[in-house]
Amino acid sequence: MNNPQTQTPLRHGRVTSPSSRGAVAVDLGLLATWQVNEMEGGKNFPALIAGPFPAPYQTDSDSVTPPADGFILSGGKTDARDCINFTNEEMAKKLSRDFTWPLLNVDPGQTFKVTWEYTAPHTTRGYRWLITKDGWDPKQRITRAQLETQPFAEDFYTQVPYFSHGGELKAKVNHEVKLPANKKGKHVIVLMWIVANTGNAFYQAFDVDFK
């Protein structure tokens, strides 16, 4: 008789520095590390529908359906990882105590550096950064309406088609971006690691305070 093989969750990658919402959830005992590694959802976000990735990268694998509003920060995951989407009030209720998502102190226009840990470093198209609008409502979950309509930064490999350049389209362990120069106060940043040869991106979220 064959021995059944234990299914292990897919484990792909997460930001290890600075602290993301996922890292906070792990520290609180709400999530395991592998769950933060697997917050993947459709890579066409902020578009609403599945389908071809935009030109000039339409030879990449089609996107699956992007995350729905209110589930963006978890990459669309609605299981235990939904806690990543929680407002302060929702999290306080879950923990039965006062809670505020810890803030990373940043300066407008500064270089924001992240370090990734990958357990399955897929063929990478690039990285997309989004941020909340001025006047966004922290008492509401993050929706497309809460975010600026355009990413404030993108870092894409330009080689196409991806299957002819697989050795070049490598996931970046150390990655950085220049933050918007015109932001003040508390905001949420959404970082997407976009995969060329699947329909997904991996989502990471940060709470920041522009000084």
From TrEMBL:
Gene3D superfamilies according to UniProt: chitin-binding protein cbp21 (2.70.50.50)
Presence of keyword Chloroplast: no
Residue ranges constituting the Chitin-binding type-4 domain according to the UniProt record: 12-208
Keyword Signal (UniProt): yes
Short name of one Pfam family: LPMO_10
UniProtKB keywords: Signal
Name recorded for this polypeptide: Chitin-binding protein
Species: Pseudomonas antarctica
Organismal lineage: Bacteria, Pseudomonadati, Pseudomonadota, Gammaproteobacteria, Pseudomonadales
Gene name linked to the record: gbpA_1
